[in-house]
């Protein structure tokens, strides 16, 4: 059996002895065989490998722990993530009753999102870190790894066929990616929810037609938006007439900008001419 190197390394610095904890893989005796599984730099750097791979306790034999097929998958909510709130949306525990959670936990579906499909395995960062898979700027890419996959879309009869490509061209996608309005532009989870996403046809879904006006009308978004406008095809290209209301809103805003620019100029020219003729200011 392979036992890991020393638990901690001590060294002297200016007369003071600091104790630096050894990386988890080394500490747990896993590094020799699994050198790529590294927690350094992740939010879980302080954890032991066994905190998540509870079944992998070292024993005599080959492999030195139960075979892969007998290793239970990590359960993020058994000891941890039981009560805390996500900075936005429902807490992780709500996952069990979501469209993804029910698919994975109840039916063992292979393609639904598990915690680590959205957050990563060993490289998890805080959501506020731009490198995090669930940082606002990365959410569309994280979800679309599956939701742009036609095999998944067809197999599960998912109503939105290519949400990323449509979102990318939409007013929200352009604001996020082209204008960098990371805090303001709506991303997938602002409308769909985070851990508690129900099937789209569920009357509890935030994107169910009956709830759209409320979802778009969230404080900070479009308070008071009428239901008819909220039910426009929101992923669509705003410069394409078929997108409905967003196309016309975009047109109205465009002409408002043009009209105000032209009227500013029209107002300015007579004043300028008077100045050039040497007339006194009024
Ligand atoms: C002596 C080498 C060795 C050591 C030490 C070792 N493992 Fe493994 N590990 C293996 C082998 C070999 C497999 C593949 C087993 C199989 O396919 O059934 C494996 C498989 C795994 C898997 C499943 C991999 C997958 O592809 O899903 C996990 C998780 C794992 N080990 C975690 C650990 C942890 C945690 C430790 C430390 C407590 C550890 N291992 C220590 C050899 C080792
Ligand atoms: C925060 C929880 C967590 C910790 C801590 C953790 N792992 Fe993992 N590990 C995971 C998850 C989640 C997976 C993916 C499981 C799956 O796909 O079924 C995984 C997968 C693996 C695999 C399979 C290969 C792969 O990359 O998918 C190995 C081997 C492994 N971990 C070893 C380790 C070792 C060694 C440590 C200690 C350095 C460790 N893990 C620490 C969560 C963790
Ligand atoms: C469908 C994708 C998805 C799945 C599955 C998922 N999460 Fe999340 N999670 C997110 C997103 C997106 C956020 C960021 C929410 C926000 O804007 O604050 C988040 C936030 C979090 C946070 C807060 C992180 C922070 O830095 O604020 C924790 C903790 C968390 N999730 C744990 C879990 C656990 C545990 C599971 C599995 C039970 C899980 N998540 C499953 C997408 C997911
Ligand atoms: C690992 C793949 C995967 C990831 C990542 C993923 N999903 Fe899903 N999602 C699925 C699958 C598969 C289904 C269908 C499950 C079912 O019907 O049982 C689904 C279902 C849904 C549904 C319901 C669709 C419908 O027509 O009823 C919504 C909404 C959804 N996901 C949103 C998201 C969001 C938002 C994210 C990112 C935060 C995300 N998903 C990340 C695989 C994924």
Model description:
This protein is mostly helical. It has three domains: 1-70, no CATH class; 89-243, no CATH class; 253-282. Helices cover 34% and strands 4% of the residues. It has twelve helices and two strands, in the order E-E-H-H-H-H-H-H-H-H-H-H-H-H. Strands 1-2 form a two-stranded antiparallel sheet. Helix 7 (163-169) packs across helix 8 (171-177). Residues 1-17 have low confidence and may be disordered. The chain binds heme C (4 copies).
What structural class do helix, strand and pairing data support?
mainly alpha
Helix-strand topology string: EEHHHHHHHHHHHH
- Distance between the amino and carboxyl termini: 95 Å
The order of strands across the largest sheet is: 1-2
Tell me the total number of β-strands. 2
User: Share of helix among residues?
Assistant: 25-40%
- Give the C-alpha Rg: 27 Å
Per DSSP, what share of the residues sits in E-state strands of 2 or more residues?
Answer: under 5%
For the largest beta-sheet, the strand count, sense and barrel status come to: 2 strands, antiparallel
Mean of pLDDT: 85
Compute the number of structural domains. Answer: 3
Low-confidence stretches: 1-17
Give the distinct bound molecules: heme C
Number of helices, counting only DSSP H or I runs of 4 residues or more:
12
What is the overall shape? Answer: elongated
In short:
With 282 residues, this protein is mainly α. The protein is built from twelve helices and two strands, in the order E-E-H-H-H-H-H-H-H-H-H-H-H-H.
């Amino acid at each position: 059996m392979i036992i890991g190197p020393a638990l901690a390394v001590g060294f002297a610095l200016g007369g003071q002895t600091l104790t630096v904890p050894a990386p988890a893989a080394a500490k747990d005796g896993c590094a020799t065989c699994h050198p790529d599984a590294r927690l350094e730099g992740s939010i879980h750097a302080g954890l032991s490998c066994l905190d998540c791979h509870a079944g992998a306790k070292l024993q005599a034999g080959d492999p030195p722990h139960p075979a892969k097929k007998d290793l239970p998958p990590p359960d993020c909510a058994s000891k941890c993530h039981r009560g805390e709130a996500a900075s936005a949306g429902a807490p992780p525990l709500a996952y069990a009753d979501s469209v993804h959670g029910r698919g994975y936990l109840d039916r063992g579906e292979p393609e639904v999102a598990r915690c680590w499909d959205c957050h990563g395995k060993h490289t998890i960062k805080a959501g506020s870190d731009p490198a995090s898979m669930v940082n606002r700027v990365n959410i569309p890419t994280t979800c679309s790894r599956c939701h742009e996959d036609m095999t998944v879309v067809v197999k599960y009869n998912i109503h939105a066929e290519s949400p990323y490509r449509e979102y990318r061209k939409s007013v929200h996608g352009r604001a996020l990616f082209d204008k960098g309005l990371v805090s303001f532009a709506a991303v997938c989870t602002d409308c769909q929810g985070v851990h508690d996403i129900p099937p789209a046809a569920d009357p509890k879904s935030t994107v169910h037609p009956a709830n759209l006006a409320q979802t778009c009308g969230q404080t900070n978004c479009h308070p008071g938006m009428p239901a008819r406008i909220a039910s426009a095809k929101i992923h669509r290209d705003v410069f394409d007439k078929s997108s409905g209301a967003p196309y016309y809103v975009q047109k109205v805003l465009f002409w408002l900008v043009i009209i105000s620019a032209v009227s500013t100029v029209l107002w300015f020219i007579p004043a300028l001419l008077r100045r050039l003729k040497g007339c006194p200011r009024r």
